[in-house]
């Protein structure tokens, strides 16, 4: 106990010192030091020794029947309840107990309320979040959910459970971040759950390039733009195999739309896009390819690596389902997981569902705008941003149009944003939460297909495998019907005819079941080949999907160990494609030193101790920068697009004399060989022999970016274009491998632990195991007395008697 308190004191003191001396992203609001340092109510009270854990019995009036929770040796909760609502209550209680500050700050960040607790430093961010319309989107979702009484009952029970924990806290028991920042937790609401759902939509489907694409085409001209920015990589290996036929025509052909002709460039500041490393892998192999004769499903979502983790590991057992997997703190149920009959996993689809439209105002006050030849009144919403330490709120007016909120007002031309995640949802029997609840209780392929019917956003690639032997993949969500090229560029917002022409029917979504090749997979690449009857655009990966498909196609007699190895595979097709071209261009011109020899001998695997990956990455990036220095010059005028890596490789190989290899800053005329050689010499001159892991410097930051609560210097390999897609602060946030046989054989790991308390031994116990490529065995317990698990402690939840 004494040692834990010492380390917690050291961490908190370090954190406080940094806060006092560093202008951090949370602003400058500090807690009262006396309260924070108090031995009775301050951070000292957050020390959590492992020997203090003991069985506990609680009673609550919200419960219908008794429920029991077994915490295994890793403190993962296994819930056994008599009904789905009782299970949701317990899940809400436990999640709030373990992750309350994460739940609170995540919701505040999404809806634009950080300044209430962090001060003036986050006002600009809060203003931006409100201009996205995320709170309104959550309100629309909550309104739609009222049509699904079963889902609302579960959400309300989860909310009641979270609030039961919150209501039990004294200030001494608040999580340390509340004490550090000097505020107290507020009650959880169903709207908060809806906001959390929308936070995932923001992370996964807010990426759009309408402004830079429009500027780039205007600067380059149509021909050069089309040359540098083709929509489809010919080497792509799509999610749905190209051998799949489409036995339908597009339901409603979208007419051509009017693209806007801006008089100049759009020079306004862009809203930050989700990081490019956000992605995932999932796949399933049929029993025909496995040693056991049963399917194996794998999933590893690539997201920001944080402490606490975005995932909360849990088992939930009721009469309706027995499921194990990971949930999102703030959302009931299990998002990625398995039961005794099926397993499922998700990756991001990458479709562009954010379109920007010009707004022509009818008056100087911007109260009405022109639509279809007439003035239409805009809805003006006054946003009041409360700021800690200030008496008066900051006011901002968001204007809502037919298209959506006016998100951009700084570029000389106001732009409204039509984002699918903000749209009102149609009435359905069930929605996203219902999808995951149905998967938790699913028995086979038909249940999987039925479960996906309620899902809208963000569009995901749902992988599936069953004990019966089926495997399937569906690109699932509410996808707009677009005209050719629609959504790539800013569009004319004065005509409603320029909008989407409805949504792709559920029966026409890209899908495949039990393909002849014996596996299904997705890694954020294109959903289909170019022959799919509907147009779509977006951001798609060019390398991981190709490599995973190549490996799965070559493997036979597959075992769980093989699938773990593929998740941990550091091989990338990017250097496999690029390095021979780079080396060929400098052959005979560069000195044959030890660095060049290491690169020539390299096997394209980004191993932590290797030096070749660091050399390649720097060389490729510098050659790219030198080649496209013209784009850097253009970017000084306005936001622009840059060509994709695969197009750059193709350009070096096929058109090495292209004028774009001529550098802006030199007098002489360069070719590809000159640029590549200059980049190599520059890199080698500055290279100090660091390994790939040192160069990459992977770390896992605390959600509040408090260094003392973070883990840095993880000596790991991986690469964003390899299956093991680990970067500096992004990567596989949960690895799961499930073999479906007579009983599920499951393994998983995430870099963290159940607790969000930095003073707990369960805060980050699996970071090193994750970094080492090790897995935990996932036990789907038969009941509270299952001897396969050695309980750490147990909790009993009883209905409160009158």
What would you note in describing this structure?
Pfam families: Penicil_amidase. It comes from Phaeodactylibacter luteus. This protein has a domain at 573-696: Penicillin amidase (Acylase) alpha subunit, N-terminal domain. It has an 11-stranded mixed beta sheet, with helices on one face. Strands 4, 5, 21, 24, 25, 26 and 27 form a 7-stranded antiparallel beta sheet that branches. It has a 3-stranded mixed beta sheet with strand order 6-22-23. The protein is built from 23 helices and 28 strands. The longest helix has 28 residues, at 84-111. Helix 16 (573-586) runs parallel beside helix 20. The chain is an alpha+beta fold and 802 residues long. Residues 1-42 have low confidence and may be disordered.
Report the sheet-strand fraction: 15-25%
The tally of beta strands, per DSSP, is: 28
Question: Which overall shape is indicated by the principal axes computed on the Cα atoms?
Answer: globular
Whole-number average pLDDT?
Answer: 93
Number of helices: 23
Largest sheet entry: 11 strands, mixed
* Overall CATH class of the domain at 573-696: Mainly Alpha
Family: Belongs to the peptidase S45 family.
GO molecular function: hydrolase activity, acting on carbon-nitrogen (but not peptide) bonds, in linear amides; metal ion binding
InterPro entries: Ntn_hydrolases_N, Pen/GL7ACA/AHL_acylase, Penicillin_amidase_A-knob, Penicillin_amidase_dom1, Penicillin_amidase_N_B-knob, S45
Cofactor: Ca(2+)
Core attributes:
about 800 residues; alpha+beta; Penicillin amidase (Acylase) alpha subunit, N-terminal domain; seven-stranded antiparallel beta sheet; disordered N terminus
């Amino acid at each position: 106990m004494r040692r834990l308190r010492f380390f917690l004191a050291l961490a908190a003191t370090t954190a406080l010192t940094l806060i006092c001396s560093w202008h951090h992203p949370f602003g400058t609001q500090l807690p009262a030091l006396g309260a924070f340092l108090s031995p009775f109510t301050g951070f000292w009270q957050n020390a959590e020794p492992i020997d203090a854990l003991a069985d506990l019995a609680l009673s609550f009036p919200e419960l219908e029947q008794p429920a029991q929770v077994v915490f295994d040796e890793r403190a993962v909760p296994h819930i056994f309840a008599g009904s789905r609502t009782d299970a949701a209550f317990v899940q809400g209680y436990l999640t709030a107990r373990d992750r309350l500050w994460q739940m609170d700050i995540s919701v505040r960040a999404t809806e634009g309320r950080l300044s209430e607790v962090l001060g003036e430093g986050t006002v600009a961010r809060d203003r931006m979040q409100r201009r996205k319309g995320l709170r309104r989107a959550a309100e629309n979702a909550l309104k739609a959910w009222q049509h699904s009484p079963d889902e609302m009952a579960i959400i309300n029970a989860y909310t009641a459970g979270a609030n039961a924990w919150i209501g039990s806290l004294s200030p001494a028991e608040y999580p340390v971040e509340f004490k550090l920042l000097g505020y107290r937790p507020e009650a959880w609401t169903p709207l908060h759950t809806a906001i959390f759902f929308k936070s995932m939509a923001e992370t996964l489907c807010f990426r759009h390039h309408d402004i830079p694409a429009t500027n780039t085409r205007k600067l380059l001209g149509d021909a050069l733009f089309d040359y540098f920015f083709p929509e489809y990589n010919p080497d792509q290996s799509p999610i749905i195999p190209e051998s799949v036929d489409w036995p339908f025509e597009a339901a409603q052909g979208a007419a051509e739309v009017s693209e806007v002709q801006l008089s100049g460039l759009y020079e306004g500041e862009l809203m930050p896009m989700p990081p490019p490393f956000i992605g995932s892998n999932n796949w399933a192999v049929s029993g025909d390819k496995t040693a056991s004769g049963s399917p194996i499903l794998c999933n590893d979502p690539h997201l920001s690596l944080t402490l606490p983790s975005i995932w909360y590991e849990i088992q939930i057992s009721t009469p309706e389902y027995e499921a194990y997997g990971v949930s999102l703190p703030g959302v009931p149920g299990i998002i990625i997981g398995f039961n005794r009959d099926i397993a499922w996993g998700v990756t991001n689809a990458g479709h562009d569902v954010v379109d920007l439209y010009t707004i022509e105002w009818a008056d100087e006050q911007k109260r009405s705008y022109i639509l279809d030849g007439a003035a239409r009144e805009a809805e003006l919403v006054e946003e009041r941003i409360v700021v800690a330490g200030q008496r008066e709120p900051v006011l901002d007016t968001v204007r809502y149009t037919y298209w959506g909120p006016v998100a951009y007002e700084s570029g000389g031309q106001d732009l409204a944003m039509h984002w699918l995640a903000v749209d009102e949802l149609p009435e359905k029997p069930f929605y996203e939460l219902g999808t995951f609840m149905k998967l938790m209780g699913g028995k086979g392929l038909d249940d999987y297909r039925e479960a996906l019917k309620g899902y809208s956003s963000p569009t995901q690639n749902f992988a599936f495998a069953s004990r019966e032997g089926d495997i399937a993949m569906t690109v699932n969500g509410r996808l707009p019907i677009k005209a050719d090229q629609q959504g790539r560029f800013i569009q004319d917002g004065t005509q409603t005819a320029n909008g989407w022409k409805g949504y792709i029917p559920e029966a026409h979504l890209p899908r495949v079941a039990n393909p002849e090749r014996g596996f299904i997979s997705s890694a954020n690449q294109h959903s289909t080949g170019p022959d799919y009857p509907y147009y779509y655009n977006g951001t798609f990966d060019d390398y991981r999907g190709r490599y995973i498909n190549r490996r799965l196609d070559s493997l036979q007699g597959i075992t769980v160990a093989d699938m773990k190895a593929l998740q941990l595979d550091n091989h990338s097709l990017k250097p496999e494609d690029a390095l021979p071209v780079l080396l060929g261009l400098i052959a005979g011109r560069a000195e044959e030193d030890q660095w060049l020899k290491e690169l020539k001998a390299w096997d394209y695997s980004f191993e932590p101790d290797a030096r070749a990956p660091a050399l390649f990455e720097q060389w490729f990036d510098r050659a790219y920068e030198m080649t496209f220095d013209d784009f850097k010059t253009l970017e000084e005028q306005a936001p622009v697009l840059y060509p994709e890596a695969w197009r750059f490789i193709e350009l070096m190989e096929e058109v090495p004399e292209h004028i774009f290899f001529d550098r802006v800053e030199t007098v002489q005329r360069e070719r590809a060989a000159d640029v590549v050689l200059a980049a190599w010499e520059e890199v080698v001159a500055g290279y100090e022999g660091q390994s790939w892991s040192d160069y990459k410097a992977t770390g896992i930051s605390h959600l509040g970016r408090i260094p003392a609560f973070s883990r840095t210097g993880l000596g790991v390999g991986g690469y964003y274009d390899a299956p093991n897609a680990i970067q500096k602060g992004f990567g596989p946030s949960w690895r799961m491998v499930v073999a479906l046989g007579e009983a599920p054989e499951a393994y998983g790991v995430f870099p963290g632990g159940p607790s969000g308390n930095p003073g707990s031994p369960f805060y980050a116990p699996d970071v090193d195991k994750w970094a080492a490529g090790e897995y935990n065995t996932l036990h789907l317990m038969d009941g509270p007395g299952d001897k396969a698990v050695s309980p750490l402690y147990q909790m009993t939840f009883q209905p409160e008697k009158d």
